[in-house]
Write a structure and sequence with these properties.
The chain is α/β, with parallel strands linked by helices. It contains 6 helices and 8 strands. Strands 1, 2, 3, 4, 5, 6, 7 and 8 form an 8-stranded mixed sheet that branches. The two termini are 12 Å apart.
Amino acid sequence: MAFRQQEIRDAARFSTIRKTAAEANKESKRSAFLCHSHKDADLAKGLQAFLQNLGWEVYIDWEDATMPDRPDRRTAMRIQEKIKSSEMFFFLATENSMVSRWCPWEIGYADGVKNLDRILIVPTVDSRGNTHGNEYLQLYRHLDTAQSGGIGHFGADNQGYVLRGSAAPF
């Protein structure tokens, strides 16, 4: 199942204060790096808010004051550092992330440094009813509603694990 983009946008109203991965770990919160197109800032904020409501701290690169103003080698190094230090890597699959220059690079990097069960695709459906994703995204687990409530991550066989929380997604 893909998450409706409008419902993800609506979740941004519930945004809370963000913490670093280290702070999240001290508080026994789970941490994630959110890979997304900057053109989908509203979706990124909505997904961040939803996941924070379930006890996650979600890193978004443009919220990081230590990032350079213009992308350069330091940007790439900082992103690599954050991908490694976060427990999970979430790829927000949208039309924009599919054509981004950075998103495929980020998931490729994550693929090389994280266990495959730590990389999750967040499938979305836009207002026209289109779902987004390339074939290679099917190599990874995806975020979906868990039958027992809350959200979970699942493989192509729909076998998976509940991440946390009993709230219905979006």
